[in-house]
Design brief:
The complex is a heterodimer of chains A (about 475) and B (about 325).
Chain A: H1 31-42, H2 45-61, E1 65-69, E2 74-78, E3 81-88, H3 90-114, H4 119-122, H5 128-132, E4 154-161, E5 167-173, H6 180-193, H7 195-198, H8 209-219, E6 230-233, H9 242-252, E7 256-257, E8 262-265, E9 268-273, E10 276-279, E11 282-285, H10 289-292, H11 308-313, E12 318-320, H12 331-345, E13 357-358, H13 362-370, E14 375-379, E15 389-390, H14 396-408, E16 413-417, E17 423-427, E18 432-440, E19 442-445, E20 449-451, E21 456-460, E22 474-481
Parallel strand pairs in A: 3-22, 6-7, 6-11, 11-12
Antiparallel strand pairs in A: 1-2, 4-5, 4-19, 8-9, 9-10, 13-16, 14-15, 14-16, 17-18, 18-21, 19-20, 21-22
Helix pairs in contact in A: 3-12, 8-9
Chain B: H1 6-35, H2 42-50, H3 54-60, H4 66-75, H5 83-96, H6 103-117, H7 128-150, H8 155-183, H9 196-205, H10 209-216, H11 222-231, H12 239-255, H13 263-278, H14 281-311
Classes of the chains: A alpha+beta (about 475), B mainly alpha (about 325).
């Protein structure tokens, strides 16, 4: 692939061996990207830095922050914001959108099946123990019908782009994916700080997320409610993602409630208002399954609502996402997702997985053992990057030590090749340099699925780092989808 | 649209009270500093007395002078009656209210809290003290303006106004109680000239200096000052004015929003107003201003309890 001519601020920019979201030649030529590059190149470094500092100051003043607690104090931190946008062409977006819709559809069909007939398990397409033995499998959901068969009303599908520019799914998030508030706030920040960069470009808007979400929440309310009361259930102001809860409640125009604001009487859910108890029909909950109802799950939960599952099972309240969606976004189930898609939809996955070898299967195990030093091996039960082997970055001794663990318990592992994540030009203290990025599009599903154009681009701000998590030096970028 | 979440009503009530408290504290410290240069330290002690903090204050400090009082009220976040504590409490309430506050309002409280966190003892010396007190006052006043101009005047706004007016009435009566007795010429010096500048300072501390001048022109007497702060029909911080505002808000909640939770509070206000209007200030002073103000304070405390129980019980 060729390079675009760039100058000024971008003059010394070198994407290395990686696909660059701005400078790599796309399969379809895109005039808009050339315009943005020209405009970026013409900007003065001092000016860009000042506008960047202003933008981050605005985020802090507006309280678009997550909270870090120490022993004595609470500190509000912003998610660092990089002012150079990531651009997705209309053609690229078409593929991503169709792929995300397909994936969410398969996830919902899978969950519907798991919590009803378990046909896919009986047909041995997915090993039964992988699902039934999963910590996030909820037997309480067996036989419960949910509106439109939708379980994952809000899903975030994490995508990366490999060296060849192919988008691949890295992870599914079907429980409570977060980050959408940054997508919308980043855009409004960019519109204020960089009107010159965006001038005359057709960029698809993101500010109707709340309206879409509310419509989906209303569509799943119990049928007897003509004007359903939707609420957002948050763990409260001490939760580090509280800002996002505020954002979503505000954008939907619904009350942000905590567990203590709700009660269950008569198998119906009520909220405590100044005028007494008022009926609640749909709860968009940002609490994990195990905290929502101390009568059924963790008895020590102070955050939930006693009796909520009773009301849910009685069909008197809708929960989004449904209980028990965690079996669909598990790392081990992820490996089976291409087969799950084929099983229910009779189609190939539009967005491929990162090539994954399932070590519980002989073929996968053999390949993994033969190529251990080249692969990333992940335990399926863990999250947060614990207990994994990054072959290319490990010593021979570490690889051998891991080999023993793998042979002892192959079912616990999957392996993947090292992917060279795509990069995007990113501002740092001395200029513009390539940094690795991923993309989390958000899909809302009531009766049908809608995907927010773009999504959250996370960027690893440290040179060479591929860790985009906010807790480990990650930031975010505005993601522009071109086209009307 | 349904009624407001009970918890949010409580948050609005307390947000208003804490912001009002910050503004009052900033003004009292600023005025005390201005008028203490040529008099004794008893002015600084009176700040402690106004807040009924003698016990906690003297556990931490030997004497009530400028530096110790300024530290206790402007920097000591462990002191629950301090500015940083009130800002933190206001911030917590505002944070819980973010889905319904306007973005500007939240931003104002957030910036106020964060900018005060950056203030250190060295910033509060010399001209820094009045300058920062002024900034704080202005930030509170801006927040008032933002609420007025951007917060929907719906049900929730009424709790905000009630909180604001209870706090104002509370602050005005405390200020009067302490200062009145402090400034009265002592019995040994009957007939000695009034220290006019100190009475003016009291009016300024209540933000009522100009308003008082316009009503009373050149005449200044302790009774006139007390009467003004308690019974002025038009001064927004007089006790009468605050009580009338609270009463109006409760009526609105009952008639427009069909909320009956305020009935006990309305009864209490009726009782208060009956007592308030029937007594001329000279009679009150004769029979004991302190006892009278004490009763008002007790009533305001009970009123807060009634409002909480009626609209946002724990």
């Amino acid at each position: 692939m060729g390079e675009r001519a760039i100058g000024g601020l971008m003059a010394g920019y070198d994407r290395g061996a990686f696909f660059c979201e701005l400078t790599s030649e796309r399969t379809s030529n895109c005039a808009e990207i050339a315009i943005v590059l020209d405009r970026l190149g013409a900007l003065d470094f001092a000016d860009l830095s000042r506008r960047s500092a202003d933008a981050e100051r605005a985020l802090f003043d507006l309280g678009i922050t997550f909270t870090v607690y120490s022993e004595r104090d609470s500190i509000d931190r912003i998610l660092p914001f990089d002012v150079i946008p990531r651009i997705i062409t209309a053609d690229e977006w078409q593929v991503i959108e169709a792929g995300v819709v397909q994936r969410v559809q398969a996830i919902n069909l899978f969950l519907q099946d798991v919590y009803h007939g378990q046909k896919i398990l009986k047909d041995k397409v997915v090993p039964a123990e992988l699902v039934l033995g999963n910590a996030n499998y909820r037997p309480e959901m067996q036989g419960l019908d949910v509106a439109h068969g939708t379980y994952g009303h809000v899903c975030g599908i994490d995508l990366i782009r490999d060296e060849g520019g192919i988008y691949r799914v890295l992870e599914d998030n079907a429980r409570t994916p977060s980050g959408v508030s940054y997508v919308v706030e980043n855009r409004s920040l960019m519109m204020r700080a960089f009107p010159d960069l965006m001038a005359d470009l057709q960029i698809r808007p993101v500010d109707n997320y709340g309206t879409r979400l509310h419509a989906a929440m209303a569509s799943i309310a119990p049928p007897e409610s003509s004007d359903p009361q939707v609420v957002l259930l948050s763990p409260g102001i001490y939760n580090s993602a509280f800002f996002e809860h505020v954002f979503l409640a505000r954008e939907m125009g619904v009350p942000l409630v905590e567990g203590r604001d709700l009660c269950v009487e008569d198998d119906k859910v009520w909220m405590r208002t100044t005028g007494g108890l008022e009926r609640v029909h749909t709860i968009y909950r940002r609490l994990n399954d195990e905290f929502i109802d101390p009568e059924v799950f963790r008895a020590d939960s102070m955050l939930g609502v006693p009796g909520l599952m009773r009301a849910y099972r009685a069909g008197n309240v809708a929960l989004a996402n449904a209980v028990g969606t965690g079996v669909a976004d598990d790392k081990a189930v992820y490996a089976y997702m291409p087969r799950i898609i084929r099983y229910y939809l009779g189609e190939d996955a539009i967005l491929p997985n990162v090539e994954t070898f399932i070590c519980r299967e002989k073929e996968g195990l053999d390949y993994t053992l033969a190529n251990l030093a080249k692969l990333v091996v992940k335990p399926v039960g863990e999250s947060g990057g614990y207990g994994l082997l990054i072959g290319p970055k490990s010593t021979a001794a570490e690889v051998e030590e891991f080999r023993a663990k793998l042979i002892a318990d192959p079912s616990n592992y999957i392996s993947q090749p090292m992917i060279g994540l795509s990069v995007a030009p990113t501002l740092n203290s001395t200029g513009v340099a390539p940094r690795h990025v991923d993309l989390r599009p958000f899909a809302i599903t009531g009766q049908t699925t809608w995907v927010l154009p773009g999504g959250l681009t996370r960027v690893a701000l440290r040179e060479g780092s591929i860790v985009v998590n906010s807790s480990q030096g990650g930031g975010s970028k505005d993601s522009w989808v071109l086209g009307a | 649209m349904g009624n407001l979440l009970a918890r949010s009503a409580g948050n609005l009530f307390w947000l208003a009270r804490y912001l009002e408290r910050v503004e009052n504290m900033a003004r009292i410290v600023e005025i005390t500093e201005t008028f203490s240069r040529d008099t004794s330290a008893r002015n600084w002690l009176s700040v402690v007395q106004i807040n009924a903090d003698e016990k906690r204050f003297f556990e931490k400090h030997k004497v009530a002078d400028g530096p110790s009082v300024v530290h206790f009220y402007l920097l000591d976040s462990d002191n629950p009656t301090s500015v940083p504590a009130a800002l933190q409490a206001a911030h917590m309430n505002a944070r819980a209210l973010r889905p319904i506050l306007s973005v500007e309002m939240w931003e104002q409280v957030n910036v106020m809290r964060n900018s005060w966190r950056a203030v250190s003892a060295s910033d509060l010396t010399g001209p820094g003290l009045p300058r920062l007190c002024k900034r704080l006052r202005e930030q509170c006043q801006v927040s008032e303006g933002v609420v007025e101009g951007s917060f929907a005047h719906d049900e929730g706004w009424h709790y905000y106004r009630i909180g604001k007016n209870i706090e104002r009435a509370d602050q005005t009566t405390r200020l009067l109680d302490i200062k009145y007795h402090l400034l009265l010429p002592n019995v040994d010096a009957v007939g000695s000239a009034l220290d006019a500048s100190q009475w003016n300072a009291l009016l300024r501390a209540a933000n009522g200096y100009q308003a008082f001048r316009r009503v009373h022109q050149g005449r200044l007497s302790p009774a006139a000052v007390a009467g003004f702060l308690l019974f002025s029909d038009s001064f927004p911080r007089s006790m009468t004015h605050c009580v009338r505002q609270i009463s109006y808000m409760l009526t609105q909640l009952r008639s427009r929003y069909r909320l009956s939770g305020g009935t006990p509070a309305e009864d209490k206000l009726d009782e208060m107003r009956a007592v308030l209007v029937d007594l001329p200030i000279e009679r009150i002073i004769e029979t004991g201003l302190h006892e009278y103000l004490d009763w008002v304070q007790t009533q305001l405390g009970a009123l807060t309890g009634d409002i909480r129980d009626g609209f946002f019980p724990d």
